[in-house]
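ARCHIVE RECORD
Type: protein–small molecule complex
Small molecule: adenosine-5'-triphosphate
Source of inputs: curated submission
Record status: active
Notes field left blank by submitter.
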Amino acid sequence: MAAPIVEVRNLRKTYGPKVAVDDVSFAVERGEIFGILGPNGAGKTTTVETLAGLRGADGGAVRVRGIDTQRDPAAVRDILGVQLQEATLHDKITVGEALRLFAGFYAHPADPDELLAMLDLAEHADKQFAKLSGGQKQRLSIALALVGNPEVAILDELTTGLDPQARRATWDLVERVRDTGVTILLVTHFMDEAERLCDRLAIIDGGKVVAEGTPQGLVDGLDDDRTVVVRFAPDDVARGRELLAGLADRHPDVTRTEAAATTEVAVTGTRRVLFAVVPALAEADLVPDDVRTVTRSLEDVFLAVTGRTYQPEAQLAAAATREGDRS
Ligand SMILES: Nc1ncnc2c1ncn2[C@@H]1O[C@H](COP(=O)(O)OP(=O)(O)OP(=O)(O)O)[C@@H](O)[C@H]1O
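STRUCTURE (tokenized, with ligand):
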């Protein structure tokens, strides 16, 4: 098997007493979209900035195409394209000028016009930076990360602040970039984005990798519990609750029953739990309005590995409060 194009081994990075990255390891294969997913403050940006040689590590090793980026950051300048959070340019510079300016920094730059076309920016080439919409600014920042014709592009929180339509357009764009052969390291705190885009991902929490794999593989690795949610018409709710509440005592495949929303009951058990619920309803001639099995997601993976529900913004606020308390 070919050597990974990106390798991070036991990376550690502190800011004074603050341990931002405690122990992070992962490897990215050529051509992948690899996600670094985690709540705000987990250490994602510090990890990629250290990987890009923009920050000095306190321990561990980081390599891009075998090159140690800590020892020789200049050697990866033409290999690695970096789109960092909140990139800003001079208000008056136009899209086309910015791309041509940045193209001049590289030995083998991409054709700015081709990039403009690929990123749906051709019609905005003469627009000044300050007049661009949020989505257009994000697309320009991706274009600037790609203008050096890199083999690997780091994209950090690229859909934060975008509306749903612009987010979906950006996701399509990331896939298009990957299809041109660029390996992508995608930093995100959005679970849906990671699920939708990443071939593999590392979930980071508190400066450590807490889970790694394909989105589906991580979900499949959860324990075998399944939950069925049954919704009743308002007149049937009481009878439905009573019927299903008794199932855990009577049926080996049912472990617990909980009232979900006002008219819903959630029944959890083995993979065969549906076979317990539907016959019980049929026997009582109780026709539900809806029956659905709960789809498990990366949020369940996060809960399973950390013991906490995934609330990226709330955790940031809590951390800020704790830091405020200390100072
Ligand atoms: N320059 C710095 N000086 C001191 N502490 C820092 C610095 N940069 C980051 N930190 C702290 O290090 C921790 C990790 O930050 P980092 O930005 O890497 O996390 P993140 O997962 O990328 O979060 P976000 O999505 O909010 O950027 C946080 O607690 C943050 O407050």
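CURATOR ANNOTATION: The domain at 6-220 is CATH 3.40.50.300 (Rossmann fold).
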